[in-house]
């Protein structure tokens, strides 16, 4: 046995047999298999979700605004379920078994969707939804039931897989609590996003091309095959992974904190930054050294640690609510409350993303899809969503190799700029994407209605390009922020908050579409987005509305980020992570 294998085991993680991990476990060698899972999983999700509106509108004959809401509701549900996936992983199953179990669930939904799209008995009669020529009856009955059952199986499986891919990959580098670990984590999140971009490009070009040329049924079958490959990649690296054992329900101790704080609200506050004189053993779970930035926030929760520790034969019968909470439990509750405003400020960004996956695709169908005027090659409108990811293949490595070292010298931060600063840059840029979308749509509509001309589909490139730059800052920053801020046992759940932001963004999109149609419908009209023909709609005004909301959201974020950074441990200087706070590094 070599010296590396004889090194001290990692007591915070175990291998596939349940034994403490050693140095041969984890690292990039293990993360490669998880990156493989991520790549094929993203190909699966993107190839289904990005062109789904075409299938719902063109094949199932749903009206345009309703088809857009079907897509955003399904995608929103998948991202919302990510909270369930994070909870199950942290509390009961662990990342590996959560990924494997719900990966199989997602695969079953994809197989069912492929069967539904390929069987002739479930296919709708030909129909031109723009002119309503042909049999344009909306899909109902068994056809609709099977379709939605398949979609929600995919949503359930995908929702539980997504947060655990990111958390499980980061787990392969966590455990030392050193400055080098923080740098490796930051690099891993950039590599992970690079892989994400490559997978998106493959899905939005090759798979979308297959869907357009061979039919959606074949395209869905390809998606099922890529999901099967993802599961094979996951199992292949089983003997190399570092696995963090589940610690039981993460909500039970947090709920105890709120209940205890409520019942002891009239007692003298026990500061979370100092030991509890009534419960001296309460701080053992997490040493307190004054670096916890939220110590002076949510002070009402500090009362939860007050009270004597029950002892003797009757202790087991003591009501658990009356037991004093540990400092660690109080800090968990404070962290969860503190990150919520940051989480809320990212929702509107994903509302903008929902438009690029729905209405912007339909814009493409109303434009000249030839690559150049003399070309016979037509650009599939859904493939426009690959543009930001193609640009990001250049920007992400440039960010890691050029910008990070430069900013590291300027700011002194190990990651160049903090995750909160990175998120702020992205939130500002997303409003510019919606401004670009509004200007282009106004020009497209004017050319079509007044001049009878079709603009080139390449006019849509700027809005996708600008949004891609925004994603590089917002998404990577948010993933890193949630993982680093999570206390022990909460990594997968807080990572799931990142994905649930997509959920609320897509649900907000559905709500805005419905509200805008109702508010702008005058005298029995259809409203800005009420017609199947975009030439009769006012999508440009809807984009301007989102641009204004994005701008207001940015200023709200500045206030929330400033508040988050305030507190007892909120100095700008980078500090080495204490042993007990190794996963609560500053953002």
UniProtKB/TrEMBL annotation:
Gene: ga27477
Lineage: Eukaryota, Viridiplantae, Streptophyta, Embryophyta, Tracheophyta
Family in the record: Belongs to the major facilitator superfamily. Proton-dependent oligopeptide transporter (POT/PTR) (TC 2.A.17) family.
Subcellular localization(s) per the UniProt record: Membrane
Protein name, as recorded: Protein NRT1/ PTR FAMILY 4.3
Parts of the chain that traverse the membrane: 32-58, 70-88, 95-115, 144-162, 193-212, 218-241, 335-356, 387-407, 419-440, 460-483, 495-521, 541-560
Membrane topology: Multi-pass membrane protein
Gene3D superfamilies on file: MFS general substrate transporter like domains (1.20.1250.20)
Superkingdom classification of source: Eukaryota
Keyword annotations of the record: Membrane, Transmembrane, Transmembrane helix
SUPFAM superfamilies: MFS general substrate transporter (SSF103473)
Matching PANTHER family: OLIGOPEPTIDE TRANSPORTER-RELATED (PTHR11654)
